[in-house]
Amino acid sequence: MIRLYDFPLSGNAHKVRNMLSLLAVPYERVLVDLPAGEQRSPEFLALNPFGQVPVLRDDDETVRDSSAILVYLGRKFGRGEWLPVDALGEARVVEWLATANTLVADGLARARVIQLFGRDGDLGAAQELAHRALGSFDAHLDQRAWLACKRPTIADVANYSYVALAPDGGVALDPYPNVQRWLERLEKLPGFEPAPSQAGGPGR
């Protein structure tokens, strides 16, 4: 039985919930009270010594980090549809997983945690990086429907959440029509789970 250690407003945790839903994989959801510091408890640190959600338990195996979990789920349950088995297709997916963990995390995700949760940081710098990332996304999506391949992959799921949640960080998506259409395509997939937007953005 799969167990997901989760926090409802976490974009990274949403990636995994969305993937599980898209794959129609049943799981048990275990809420971790981040504001109360439950992620620093000895019990949780035994699962993830970095004290972060999400964490996935599949029987006796533990996988931490949203990108790693998406790879695990895509390979185990995706029947080759969500994670390509050819070298170039897999490399293209990994490129976009790296983007999710760099430009998207440092711009869109950071702007959101600063504005929504009051974290320390330079909001203006994060928003500037977010717009730079969205501009690159928009240009990339000008002649294609999906980020990495000709079909949706875990690359799209990995990047969707914080892009859709951009309004939570004060980053408007209006200037990026190709990005908005990409979000809409994802939102129409069977099993799609909406992102937990607090600002009424496309992640609704």
Describe what this molecule looks like in 3D.
This protein is of the alpha+beta class and 204 residues long. The protein has two domains: 2-77, Glutaredoxin; 87-187, Glutathione S-transferase Yfyf (Class Pi), Chain A, domain 2 (Up-down Bundle). 49% of the residues lie in helices and 9% in strands. The protein has eight helices and four strands, in the order βαβαββαααααα. Strands 2-1-3-4 form a four-stranded mixed sheet, covered by helices on one side. Helix 4 runs parallel beside helix 7 (154-164) and helix 5 packs across helix 6. It is globular and about 45 Å long.
Q: What is the CA–CA distance across the termini?
A: 29 Å
Give the SSE order as H and E letters. EHEHEEHHHHHH
User: Rg from C-alpha positions?
Assistant: 16 Å
Under the CATH scheme, which class of the largest domain? Mainly Alpha
> How many separate helices?
8
Number of strand elements: 4
Widest beta sheet: strand line-up: 2-1-3-4
Which structural class do you get from the secondary structure elements? Answer: alpha+beta
Number of structural domains: 2
Which regions have little confidence, pLDDT < 50, spanning 5+ residues?
none
Briefly note the CATH topology name of the largest domain: Glutathione S-transferase Yfyf (Class Pi), Chain A, domain 2
> Which percent range fits the helix content?
40-55%
Shape: globular
The averaged pLDDT comes out at 95
The biggest beta sheet is recorded as: 4 strands, mixed
Strand coverage percent:
5-15%
